[in-house]
């Protein structure tokens, strides 16, 4: 068995020269066809003598390419039907290259000249088609068509290009799979793991196949990094035999691996905005870097502020507030309130000394009234505000209109209605709002969606 394995290794080793050898017949035969056509003109007639040699060299290199390609096929990981078509088209091309050489040195008759011309046309078309099929095997079936313009796609019967994801300018609105995980796998992994070339029976071009994995194990096991074969492979030391991608291909950066980890540990959802997850520390820094939001003028989380007064922070912590910086090296704060007693000793005014630092604030189910929103309206750097399950009304929402950096607002279980929403229309950065179990009507929601198509409005199943 070891001897057979060693022989097979040698076969695959030699076969891996196929991508190098295959360019010889392409170049040689194309030059031969060009000279054959040019030699028809009197002033280039001297080129005629070189055509038989070129066709002969092209035929020999085409045969070698077929042999090397056959050896490479033992490596496996290719779609059987696509591989079979490519192989037989390559063999046909080699056969016709041999025939072209034979007819070039044959005694010239009118019939032979017609056959020569026909063979040249077939070789020209065959080179393009065979090369296209080889490209599909190597890079995936959509490699050539992925960036083709719609008029050309329509001409060849392809559907229009899918709409591009809008550029991410606000971290909270980025989709963790569509904007982060899928693009990184497409850039670094899909060339070897696609429906036409599934090394290790692993396909990474769709969500379902990413989760499924391949012959070495499940691609993603929710909440378990060690059992997630995809994560294990990309996070190994680069010198490890199982590390992916293999030598010669650019690996994922440390920040990209951190975001893959974040995705898996948060349930590996098929879609879900970054604002839905608790992102802090290294994860936040990684997200900003990967999405190109570091120092971005539209990124409110890149704002520079003075550090909060440590005595104020300590006092608030003692009263039941949880206060954390959103990332290492940042003075911006994520504040929530978790105490279940002594609520009468806690007031929103106590947060005012931190109004410049607070960007995330979670005060759900704290019996907040409209006057409390007047205080919160002074937190001008606020990015995400969760005040669900509080008895606030439309009147109070007018105070939030000053929060120009607000991106996410959770109003679930409040008393706000259609009039209150109109007071929030001045918030240019607001991209997501939660409104289920409120008095907002579906008609108002539909009007807002039509007016602001980029605004995500979550109304749940209880909206009226």
Question: Can you walk through the features of this model?
Answer:
This protein is an alpha/beta fold and 464 residues long. It folds into 3 domains: 1-156, no CATH class; 171-291, no CATH class; 310-458, Leucine-rich repeat, LRR (right-handed beta-alpha superhelix), CATH 3.80.10.10. The chain is 44% helix and 7% strand. The protein has helices at 2-15, 18-21, 23-38, 51-73, 80-105, 110-139, 150-155, 176-188, 207-212, 229-235, 254-265, 281-290, 310-318, 370-376, 394-397, 418-422, 442-451, and strands spanning 193-194, 197-198, 321-325, 333-337, 358-362, 384-386, 408-410, 432-434, 456-458. The strands form 2 sheets. Strands 3-4-5-6-7-8-9 form a 7-stranded mixed sheet. Strands 1-2 form a two-stranded antiparallel sheet. Helix 16 (418-422) links the parallel strand 7 and strand 8. Helix 3 (23-38) runs antiparallel to helix 4, helix 3 (23-38) runs antiparallel to helix 6 and helix 8 crosses helix 11. The longest helix has 30 residues, at 110-139. It starts with a helix and ends in a 6-residue tail after the last strand.
